[in-house]
Design the sequence.
């Protein structure tokens, strides 16, 4: 929370929102595995009541995440998609949402195939130039949804510039900060109203828990989102919250290794004769490099690339011949992952839309882990060597 803002990130990651257990002195927040809580009286109880509404382990996690995002409030959910779902449930029929056109396929699927049926409208546009928002401003615009860096094309959006334009018509900005993590980027400090995390990814960091979170300084959003948790029920369990608290304690040291490994991988691929284009904001030739340098403290552990010749068979060869990089969806864990967005994480995006935004059939996405970087480079070198012709 705010009182911890003056402390360093690593100190907040380890201590914010948590106190030694008053009953035992346990330094780790206990797993309060209880569905209900005894009340002092039917009309005067002000503590915990029922685990769907709140839980002490969850409270500690929410305070911890809020401190990491320089926020007053943190609200946790059972998944990242559940967090997005809760935000959209706070809108009304007739409200309009503008979203960046390169974003996680599940986000677009939720917006188009679920919430359009309930009267919300969505426009997907390229926001790498913030001025592109201008023609889409209007009184019915309630929310602008951003990913930066984006999934999977690694596009960078100027959060401050978009937030300023959205505010001119009373709209608010929500930023999916999953790729960057709060260690590298704090969107609320740049003018956003909401910041979302799939805590499954870098927050948890060990590929063993699913969760989501929203952080905000806005009291209305805090009250509204907590009402949605209570009413719709997408609450995380106490064991999940415990695992995420364990994850945040090492977030800063993990992210430093993710960043350094990804930078080495990006430069290796950028210099490889078979690679056509590397999408990594840390490369000086990335079109969003200067913005990323300004609004991020590092460039993250995610990148994507395509091969020369644009042959699907070559991409399949690379995807099939790694051994340290595992072929799997998700990201942000300590282990390195390789995946094919067009057939995996973004298969729900229509083919014509994928092609329009540049999500090619040959695009390969990497989540660079924290293994020894020499092994990661050797693994990619071996996989690329299998490409023939």
Sequence:
């Amino acid at each position: 929370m705010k009182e911890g803002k003056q402390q360093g990130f690593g100190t907040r990651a380890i201590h914010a929102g948590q106190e030694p257990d008053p009953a035992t002195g346990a330094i780790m927040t206990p797993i309060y595995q209880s569905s209900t809580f005894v009340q002092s009286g039917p009309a005067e109880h002000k503590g915990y009541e029922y685990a769907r509404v709140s839980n002490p382990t969850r409270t500690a996690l929410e305070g911890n995440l809020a401190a990491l995002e320089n926020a007053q409030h943190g609200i946790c959910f059972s998944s990242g998609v559940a967090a997005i779902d809760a935000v959209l449930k706070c809108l009304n029929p007739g409200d309009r949402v503008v979203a960046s056109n390169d974003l996680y396929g599940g986000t677009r699927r939720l917006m188009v195939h679920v919430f359009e049926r309930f009267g919300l409208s969505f426009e997907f546009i390229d926001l790498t130039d913030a001025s592109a928002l201008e023609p889409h401003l209007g009184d019915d615009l309630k929310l602008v949804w951003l990913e930066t860096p984006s999934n999977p094309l690694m596009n960078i959006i100027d959060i401050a510039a978009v937030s300023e334009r959205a505010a001119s018509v009373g709209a608010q900005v929500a930023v999916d900060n999953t790729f960057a993590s709060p260690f590298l980027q704090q969107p609320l400090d740049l003018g956003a109203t909401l910041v979302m995390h799939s805590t499954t990814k870098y927050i948890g960091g060990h590929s063993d828990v699913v969760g989501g979170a929203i952080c905000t300084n806005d009291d209305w959003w805090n009250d509204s989102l907590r009402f949605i948790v209570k009413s719709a029920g997408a609450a995380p369990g106490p064991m999940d919250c415990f695992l995420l608290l364990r994850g945040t304690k090492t977030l800063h040291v993990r992210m430093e290794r993710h960043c350094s490994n990804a930078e080495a991988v990006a430069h290796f691929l950028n210099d490889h004769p078979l690679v056509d284009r590397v999408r990594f904001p840390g490369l000086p030739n990335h079109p969003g490099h200067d913005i990323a340098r300004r609004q991020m403290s590092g460039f993250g552990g995610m990148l994507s690339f395509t091969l020369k010749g644009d042959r699907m068979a070559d991409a399949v060869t690379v995807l099939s011949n790694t051994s340290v990089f595992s072929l799997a969806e998700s990201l942000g864990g300590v282990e390195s992952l390789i995946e094919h967005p067009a057939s995996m994480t973004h298969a729900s995006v229509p083919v014509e839309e994928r092609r329009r935004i540049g999500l090619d059939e040959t695009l390969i996405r990497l989540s660079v882990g924290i293994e020894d970087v020499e092994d990661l480079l050797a693994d990619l070198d071996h996989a690329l060597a299998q490409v023939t012709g």
Remarks:
- The CA atoms of residues 184 and 297 lie 5 Å apart.
- Residues 251-385 form a domain with the Aspartate Aminotransferase, domain 1 fold (CATH 3.90.1150.10).
- The chain has a mean pLDDT of 94.
- The chain has two domains: 7-248, 251-385.
